[in-house]
Amino acid sequence: MPKVDQNRSEVVDQKYRPLKKMLKKTVKNITDSVANKQLPPALLMDDFMAQVKVMVSYPSFGDEYYSTFMAACDALYKACRKKDLSLFVECFAVVVSLKKECHHRYR
């Protein structure tokens, strides 16, 4: 019988899963803004960055993607702050692609 890491299970149940649900809603709101050819509100992007920073603090959930993902999220955030919609759309596509790649590997 495989050994179950109790600490990891607790992190998943108590912290990681709820955070992923929040991030899913936040990303949907960003996606809606992009679909409407608008930049998301600054507060939404602040929430997104705060959520992402917490997410990448958990070990063993795709660690090898964390630095690349954070760099892509930082570029996205900067594009929003510059109010550059076309750059924002490009950066968002990269963030979504990295998210999908990581989820594909770790689900």
Unreliable runs: none
Structure summary, number of beta strands = 0
Q: Which strand-content bin applies to the residues?
A: under 5%
Q: Roughly what is the average pLDDT, rounded to an integer?
A: 87
Characterize the overall form.
Answer: globular
CATH architecture: Up-down Bundle
Helical coverage, percent range: over 70%
CATH class descriptor = Mainly Alpha
Cα gyration radius (Å): 15 Å
Q: Strand count, sense and closure of the main sheet?
A: none
The N- to C-terminal Cα distance equals: 21 Å
Helix/strand/pairing category: mainly alpha
Taken in chain order, the helices and strands follow as HHHH
Record the SSE blueprint.
Elements: H1 6-35, H2 42-55, H3 63-81, H4 85-106
Helix pairs in contact: 1-2, 2-3, 3-4
What does this structure look like?
By secondary structure, the protein is an all-alpha fold. It has one domain (6-106): Up-down Bundle (Four Helix Bundle (Hemerythrin (Met), subunit A)). It has 4 helices and no strands. Helix 2 runs antiparallel to helix 3 and helix 3 runs antiparallel to helix 4 (85-106).
